[in-house]
Amino acid sequence: DDIEEEETDEITKKIEALPIQDVSDFKEDQREHxxxxxxxxxxxxxxxxSGRIMVLxxxxxxxxxxxxxxxxxxxxxxxxxxxxxxxxxxxxxxKGKTVEVGRAHFETEKRRYTILDAPGHKNYVPNMIxxxxxxxxxxxxxxxKKGEFEAGVDGGQTIEHARLAKMIGIKHLIVLVNxxxxxxxxxxxxxxxxxxxxxxxxxxxxxxxxxxxxQFVPGSGYTSAxxxxxxxxxxxxxxxxxxxxxxxxxLPQFERNESGALRVPxxxxxxDRGIVHVMGKVESGSITLGxxxxxxxxKTKVEVLSLSNESCNFRTGRxxxxxxxxLKGIDDEQIRQGSILxxxxxxxxxxxxxxxxxxxxxxxxxxxxxxxxxxAMFHAHTAVEECKIKSLIATIDMKTGNELKQKPTxxxxxxSIKARVVLSRAVCLEEFTSNPQLSRFTLRQSNKTIAxxxxxxxxxxxxxxx
Length: 466
Ligand code: GDP
Fold this sequence. Notes:
Elements: H1 2-17, H2 23-28, E1 32-39, H3 46-56, H4 62-74, H5 80-88, H6 90-95, E2 103-107, E3 111-116, H7 125-132, E4 137-143, H8 148-153, H9 157-168, E5 172-178, H10 189-205, E6 214-218, H11 244-250, E7 263-272, E8 275-281, E9 287-288, E10 292-296, E11 300-308, E12 316-317, E13 322-328, E14 340-342, E15 350-360, E16 375-380, E17 383-396, E18 403-406, E19 416-428, E20 440-445, E21 448-457
Parallel strand pairs: 1-3, 1-4, 4-5, 5-6
Antiparallel strand pairs: 2-3, 7-8, 7-14, 8-13, 9-12, 10-11, 10-14, 11-13, 15-19, 15-21, 16-17, 16-20, 17-18, 17-19, 20-21
Helix pairs in contact: 4-5, 7-9
The structure holds guanosine-5'-diphosphate.
């Protein structure tokens, strides 16, 4: 009992020692927190625009941004955000692991935003998945420059990223038609309309509804036109919309699963003064100081010592917040890719076999038939495991969701199929109906996304020992 009391004392002291002066600020700060991910083909202008937003909203000055851009280039990184994150987290990094998904914060009068980095290079698609998995809204950047738009769409990553975004659960896209300042474009309405029409066709095929799921904004990351302030009538007389940031502010409130069970997929962890901190987005439920929770899989019981983001400390982290969470009762070695913070009563299922609906999009040329025993890498939230198809249950009509043919022997690209999937190691997954964010996955083979899926049945849960 004594030991327990001592421990409690220690925790109380630690919590009291935390600078909680801005908790009251937080209570008054009812501004919604929104996670953004930039997606699109390499060189479309994602870094330039996200950097410009940081300057225009007063987060960093243009000299500092230029310094980050230089450093990123010198280190052969794709984005200034890496250099920025590396710099701001120097101390943390010295103690712990590397940062996999860069993030930066900015705010407007209406909302607080976090930018999650998603590099556009082909090899980085798995990173795009862990960044995009936490995003509420995607900004799909396309270059309007002659030849660049075409290259990004035909065989480029523009559409692959949009498809991934849809599958991962991003409900809304803002399509930023960038580089409108380019001499080959020069704010041409005809070029803008042509791009909008082509992208609309593709996004419809990805399952986005043109009436409500996406909208277009012309702009230039390079000159800042239409990024924070709406572009002038002199430059773009035909523009009827508002700037990129104003468009973000005007998006309807995001749906949050506040009453759901606590789930925080851990995307990064590090040790600071002996305390393990994890980073992640609260996908459902809420998390409170002092709360006892599990790290799954593994069922390690931990206590919440601190909750913060770049600008303040919280007593309670609500759904949608991107947090840094100090934990007691764990060593950072115990955290691995795919770990999730879970409520104790309503535990996240840990499974090795699932029933899923899988959409086949890009089976490799030498393996065009998707059959039982097919093997691939399974990516869900931050988890990556090998998997094998156990059996095909039925082909699915993609529009209605109805089962067409029972027990087919194979399926091909473009088809949708219900199948049983066996995972090489246990993964935290939920059924689509109970928590869509933790049900979505992609299948990959030799650096290519070959299929998307969602878990419809978690089947038998893995029994875990306490
Ligand atoms: P990312 O790969 O999508 O992050 O693209 P970057 O932001 O690195 O931009 C790629 C190139 O396009 C760089 O040389 C930028 O200077 C250039 N660029 C980005 N935005 C614009 C723009 O609005 N206008 C013009 N003319 N060039 C741009």
